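Lab notebook, design round three. We kept the backbone fixed and only want residue identities now. Task for the bench partner: fill in a sequence for the structure below.
Input C-alpha coordinates:
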Protein backbone atom coordinates (compact mmCIF):
# COMPACT_ATOMS: atom_id res chain seq x y z
CA UNK A 1 0.00 0.00 0.00
CA UNK A 2 1.26 3.47 -0.81
CA UNK A 3 2.80 5.42 2.04
CA UNK A 4 0.53 8.46 1.57
CA UNK A 5 -2.58 6.27 1.80
CA UNK A 6 -1.25 4.67 4.98
CA UNK A 7 -0.60 8.11 6.45
CA UNK A 8 -4.18 9.13 5.65
CA UNK A 9 -5.51 6.01 7.32
CA UNK A 10 -3.29 6.61 10.34
CA UNK A 11 -4.46 10.23 10.58
CA UNK A 12 -8.06 8.93 10.63
CA UNK A 13 -7.15 6.46 13.38
CA UNK A 14 -5.68 9.27 15.48
CA UNK A 15 -8.83 11.36 15.01
CA UNK A 16 -10.99 8.43 16.11
CA UNK A 17 -8.79 8.00 19.18
CA UNK A 18 -9.21 11.66 20.11
CA UNK A 19 -12.92 10.93 20.44
CA UNK A 20 -12.25 7.69 22.39
CA UNK A 21 -13.58 5.53 19.56
CA UNK A 22 -11.21 2.56 19.95
CA UNK A 23 -13.58 0.08 18.33
CA UNK A 24 -13.82 1.89 14.98
CA UNK A 25 -10.11 2.74 15.03
CA UNK A 26 -9.24 -0.94 15.52
CA UNK A 27 -11.66 -1.95 12.77
CA UNK A 28 -10.09 0.60 10.40
CA UNK A 29 -6.57 -0.68 11.09
CA UNK A 30 -7.50 -4.30 10.47
CA UNK A 31 -9.65 -3.48 7.43
CA UNK A 32 -6.73 -1.59 5.88
CA UNK A 33 -4.43 -4.55 6.56
CA UNK A 34 -1.94 -2.59 8.65
CA UNK A 35 0.39 -4.58 10.88
CA UNK A 36 1.68 -3.59 14.30
CA UNK A 37 5.06 -2.63 12.82
CA UNK A 38 3.28 -0.48 10.17
CA UNK A 39 1.35 1.33 12.91
CA UNK A 40 4.47 1.94 15.02
CA UNK A 41 6.33 3.27 11.97
CA UNK A 42 3.44 5.56 11.00
CA UNK A 43 3.19 6.84 14.58
CA UNK A 44 6.91 7.68 14.62
CA UNK A 45 6.59 9.36 11.20
CA UNK A 46 3.73 11.45 12.57
CA UNK A 47 6.26 13.40 14.61
CA UNK A 48 4.47 13.56 17.96
CA UNK A 49 4.46 10.14 19.59
CA UNK A 50 1.57 9.90 22.02
CA UNK A 51 1.48 7.33 24.83
CA UNK A 52 -2.28 6.97 24.39
CA UNK A 53 -1.73 5.96 20.76
CA UNK A 54 1.04 3.51 21.66
CA UNK A 55 -1.26 1.92 24.25
CA UNK A 56 -3.95 1.66 21.57
CA UNK A 57 -1.55 -0.11 19.18
CA UNK A 58 -0.82 -2.68 21.90
CA UNK A 59 -4.56 -3.06 22.50
CA UNK A 60 -5.36 -3.41 18.77
CA UNK A 61 -2.80 -6.17 18.24
CA UNK A 62 -2.96 -7.97 21.58
CA UNK A 63 -2.70 -11.70 21.35
CA UNK A 64 -5.07 -13.79 23.39
CA UNK A 65 -3.15 -17.02 22.82
CA UNK A 66 -6.12 -18.58 21.04
CA UNK A 67 -6.03 -19.69 17.43
CA UNK A 68 -8.70 -17.90 15.46
CA UNK A 69 -9.64 -17.51 11.82
CA UNK A 70 -7.64 -14.30 11.35
CA UNK A 71 -4.42 -16.31 11.86
CA UNK A 72 -5.38 -18.93 9.26
CA UNK A 73 -3.72 -19.09 5.84
CA UNK A 74 -7.16 -19.30 4.18
CA UNK A 75 -8.33 -16.01 5.76
CA UNK A 76 -8.43 -12.70 3.90
CA UNK A 77 -10.30 -9.40 4.06
CA UNK A 78 -12.32 -8.31 1.06
CA UNK A 79 -11.26 -4.66 0.86
CA UNK A 80 -14.24 -3.25 -1.02
CA UNK A 81 -16.61 -3.93 1.89
CA UNK A 82 -14.23 -4.95 4.72
CA UNK A 83 -15.71 -8.38 5.28
CA UNK A 84 -13.79 -11.40 6.51
CA UNK A 85 -13.60 -14.16 3.90
CA UNK A 86 -12.34 -17.74 3.84
CA UNK A 87 -10.73 -19.10 0.65
CA UNK A 88 -11.36 -22.69 1.75
CA UNK A 89 -15.04 -22.23 2.51
CA UNK A 90 -15.47 -19.73 -0.33
CA UNK A 91 -17.72 -17.44 1.67
CA UNK A 92 -17.95 -14.65 4.21
CA UNK A 93 -17.15 -15.66 7.76
CA UNK A 94 -17.87 -14.14 11.15
CA UNK A 95 -15.54 -13.96 14.17
CA UNK A 96 -15.46 -17.17 16.13
CA UNK A 97 -13.60 -18.38 19.17
CA UNK A 98 -12.61 -21.72 17.69
CA UNK A 99 -11.30 -22.16 14.14
CA UNK A 100 -12.91 -24.58 11.70
CA UNK A 101 -11.48 -27.98 10.82
CA UNK A 102 -9.59 -26.50 7.83
CA UNK A 103 -7.52 -24.16 10.03
CA UNK A 104 -3.84 -23.92 9.11
CA UNK A 105 -1.44 -21.40 10.65
CA UNK A 106 -0.27 -18.73 8.24
CA UNK A 107 3.54 -18.75 7.91
CA UNK A 108 6.06 -16.28 6.52
CA UNK A 109 8.94 -17.17 4.19
CA UNK A 110 11.08 -18.33 7.15
CA UNK A 111 8.51 -20.95 8.09
CA UNK A 112 7.58 -19.14 11.30
CA UNK A 113 3.98 -18.49 12.28
CA UNK A 114 2.77 -14.97 11.52
CA UNK A 115 1.54 -13.18 14.63
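Proposed sequence:
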Amino acid sequence: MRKDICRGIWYSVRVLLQFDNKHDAKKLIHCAGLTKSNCLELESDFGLVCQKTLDFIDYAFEEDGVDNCSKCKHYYIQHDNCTMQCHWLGKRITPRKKPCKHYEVRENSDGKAIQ
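Keep this in mind before ordering anything: Residues 74 and 90 are 9 Å apart (CA to CA).
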